[in-house]
Amino acid sequence: MEPFGFTYQDLFAGLLVFVRVMAFVGTAPLLSSSQISARIQVLLGLSLAITLYPFVRAEIPELRIDSTVWIGILGVQEVLAGALMGFSFTLLLAAIQLAGQSMGSTMGLALANVFDPATSAQINVLAQFYSLLALVLFISADGHFMFLRLLVESFERVPPGSIALGDAGARAVLEAGAHVFALGVRLAFPVLLTLLLVYAAAGVMSRAAPQIQVFFVLHPLNIALGLFVFSAVLGVSANVLREEFDRWMAQGLDLLTILGGG
After folding, report:
1. Which domain holds residue 166?
2. Tens of pLDDT, residues 103-123
3. What transmembrane ranges does the database entry give (predicted)?
4. Which regions of 12-108 does DSSP assign to beta strands (E)?
């Protein structure tokens, strides 16, 4: 029986595509924002699945559909594959937020928190600006096409039923987590170093001349110098972020190869 010209294998393959795409939409930044209603997210996932299905159907092998347990295992594997792809970009955005959060807190902006729509978290205004800058750069670098390419490549490199998260996959995930802290420190280093020198100079002045109320002028000085250094290195930071987006895409494809047993 072939309803509407589709076999049951075709319908099951379409369901697996939808599950993987929905797992990606549910974990990727912005797409998973609490500001977007669940209906819109489901419609977006369904639209992407329908759009991608003709391009990935040939990569999906014939699968057993006579066992409820096996169908459940396939569904869990598809959720894992989609969630890993979305979470990988969340890690990159977390590194950017870490840099902005550390700079803002050191400058004295910890009390000026705002809501971040990308991650649904409370962060300071500098981290918010950094996150929005990263998202704008990501879109200007055709990041939405990177998402689509990653989804299509995922079915070529990790067909449904072939996912294998072994030692190499676990190691790749741990290395991605370690890179979050390295990138965050790299982006925040100029501002943090400047403020460290300011605090050291203030400590020396307070010891040499205790009658001078150094810390009354230290707060506005920290903000002024921090923003000045931040704006001075902003162009370099933007180039670093563009490089990181390309690196994220390459790492995502490598991770898919590892998950596919390649």
Report:
1. 3-259
2. 887 887 766 555 555 555 566
3. 12-32, 38-56, 68-96, 129-152, 180-201, 221-241
4. none
